[in-house]
Amino acid sequence: MKTESNGIVTEGYCAKCGTPLVMRPSRSGGPMRRSCPACHTTVYETPSLVAATLPVVDQRVVLVRRDIDPGRGLWGYPGGYLESGETLEEGAIRETREEAGLDVQITGLLGVYSRPADAASQWCSRPSATARTGTAARR
Length: 139
Prior knowledge:
Nucleoside Triphosphate Pyrophosphohydrolase; 2 domains; 4-stranded mixed β-sheet; 13 strands
C-alpha cells in the first residue's frame, strides 16, 4: 500500500486503463475495495481454495513437515492450492501424492474451513490411503 502526496492510498494499477488504484468503500457499504478513479473498475479479492486430506495408514495419521514458509519445519496434513480446471477431489489427491507419496481415494468430507485473514478457504477430505510403491515423499 502506498500513500500519495495528496493523501490518497493506492494499491497497484488498473488492469483496464493503468491508472493507480485507490481504496474506496463499496457502494453497498461493505468492505473497502481497490477501485480505479478513472474508469471506475472495482477489484474484487477472491479467496484461494485449498484442498487437503487427512490420510490414515495402519491406523496412524500421516502428517508432512513443511519445507516452505509460512510454517517451515511445522507438521501438517497434506494439502495445497487448487489448480485451474481441477476439482477439489483431484486437488486433494494430487497434493497428497506430491507431499506424502500416497495414492488416496476420497471417501468423505471431513470439513470446510475459512480463514478470512489469509483469504483462503479450505476443503479437507477423509481419504482411504495406500502407500505408493517405493517411497514416502519428503517436503
